[in-house]
Amino acid sequence: MSSPTRPATPARLRRLHAAGALDADGYRRALAAALALPPAAAWRRFLDRLMLAIGATLTVTGIVAFFAYNWASLGRLGRVGLVELALVTVGAVALWAGVDRLGGQLAGMAAVALTGVLLGAIGQAYQQGADPWTLFAVTAALGLPWLMATRFAPLWLLELILANLALGLWWIIDLGDDGGAVARFLLALGALNGGAWLSWTQGAASAGLSAGRWLPRVVALATLAPLAIGAAAYVAIDVLRYDAGPDDLRFGPSGLAVFVVWVAVTAAILVLFRRRWPDLFMLAAAMLGICTVLTAAMFRWLIEWVQRSSDVGAPWLVMAAFLLAEGGLTAIWLRRQQLAMAAAEDDAP
Fold first, then answer.
1. What is each CA distance from 202 to 199, 241, 281, in whole angstroms?
2. In which element (H, E) is residue 198 found?
3. Domain that holds residue 115
4. C-alpha angle with apex 159: 157 to 165, nearest 5 degrees?
5. Which residue of 214, 225, 226, 259 shows the fewest CB atoms closer than 10 Å?
6. What are phi and psi of 9, to 5 degrees?
7. How far is CA 296 from CA 138, 176, 289, in A?
8. What pLDDT digit, counting tens, does each position of 54-112 carry?
9. Is residue 328 part of a domain?
């Protein structure tokens, strides 16, 4: 029998009714309660929070658009002074509303965004020759006090986005046509987001941060994406010996490191998120990475086929069949994992 603390899904209620744990009348009442729409108060609370978030976003967007449109007509003091006034106002609103409430948290997030606008305005008004990546790095650093004060999960995600932008702009200076540098960048991006993913899963609760499952899933995708892209490129370029022409784009040992890390992370997800922390979304993300690498390998092999023969139709029919088979087998496997997770959940005490 299922634990009473588990979600009363229609499928679980049907199984309880079939097992005799619920009579016909109890089954009807339980099913009606499980499928009931939220009360009007819950809808009002949801819409109130949604409108507040949209309003804060549009306000910051309007401020940025105002400066972008009137930039040429504003003097140095006007550019910097108006942004400072907006920043002070938003900070005061955050403190007045309370940094532990949604209004104050959104205002704190807006303050971090306006900090970046202010730094950009100062950089444009007083040219210092700084690299663009420093804008995002300094904005992220100055946003840490707001993050610690508000403990707001979306602000934590904004800080991670700023860190990604800073890393990308810093690294892109040395990328050029060097495949090894591209591989090292993808590896560094995966390491940054992977570290953030682990820090969230291990320390979010103790730090007072809470965002359900959506935020760690987003960060997990940000971890897997560069690793899977790097592994796919390594297979297509290095393993299958893609001829890059005059500019050699082979990844070399750095590409092999990306591939090994991707295999390790994917294997860990497939093991841990099947039994220990059942999560179908994470399994689907891991399978998407596997399909990406396999598709890149098949595509490169078909290019070789076309180059060796005059047949240009059959290889693409093979590719279409491969994609259909790959997608179908993945869907079947994920469906089986979903049923196994549901059965394990029902059998749990």
1. 5, 41, 19
2. helix 179-203
3. 56-174
4. 105
5. 214
6. -80, 155
7. 38, 23, 11
8. 877 777 777 777 766 776 666 667 777 777 888 888 888 888 888 788 788 888 888 88
9. yes
